[in-house]
Amino acid sequence: MKTMKRVLTSIGLVFAIVCAANCARAQVGTPPEDQKYFRVPHKYQVYFELAGALPSSPGVFNDFWNSAFQFGGGVGYTMFPWLDLKGNFTYASWDNNSTDSKGKIEYVGVEDVEGGLITTMTFSGSARFVGVPNARTNPFAEVSIGYFMTSADPITIEGVMEGSAANTMEDASGMMISPSIGLQYALADSWSAYAKYSYVYCSSSVFAPGDLLRPIDEEERVAGENQIFQTIGVGIMLRF
User: Fold this and answer.
1) pLDDT at 10
2) On the chain, which terminus has fewer CB atoms closer than 10 Å, C or N?
């Protein structure tokens, strides 16, 4: 699982570096008359993105849940050439690592650990600050603030835990904030692609994935903490 997280992170970083190098090389030597479409004033935008989501905190979330894919989308409005205001939605689900979880639950029989899928949805507004508005290749910084909702499926041990004996986690919700940095590249008059890294902080006092991994005879609940994860992904944006 940790190897998978490192691979996802490395792939994302390599992609961003290669994208930056290729975009810069493509921009050099392009005649000004071929770049005029990048200055067409578009006011509205629609975007879709796909990212790898790496659990970070609390530690049990990082150690016992696999990396996931995050799907996102939204709409935006260009307030100024250097500032886009956006409304965003994201969805991610992390699978529990059942092999490692057997030891944490202190059950080492042959039966399988089942369930434990953790799902997080976010709804946010954001401001994206574009570094060089008239250029084809653009670094940007973005800050998103909004609301998150996290839920989890119960965890059971096949043949041992059933119904009310299953381990459960209380749903969590509250404020989220997510700073991001990235690089976008104009593909045509209306289309742009981008790569982005985000740090997602979900403020909570009840997010407790450790509750799902309590030993069979343990009834005391785990203290809740903030949920934190990171994403590295790519997206495509239509401006009109």
Assistant:
1) 47
2) C
3-state DSSP assignment of residue 15:
helix
**53/100 Cα distance (integer angstroms):** 20
Q: Which two tokens stand for residue 199?
A: 């740090």
Rg (CA), the chain: 21
DSSP category for residue 96: B
d(CA 229, CA 42): 33
- pLDDT digits 0-9 by tens, 163-218: 556 889 999 999 999 999 999 999 988 899 999 999 999 999 999 999 999 887 77
Closest CA relative to residue 96, chosen from 56, 121, 58, 63: 63
Tell me the pTM. 0.84
Q: Which amino acid is at 160?
A: V
DSSP 167: B
- On the question of pLDDT at 7 being above 60, the answer is no
Angle at 102 between CA 99 and CA 105, to 5 degrees: 150
Residue 145 has a CB neighbour count (10 Å cut-off) of: 12
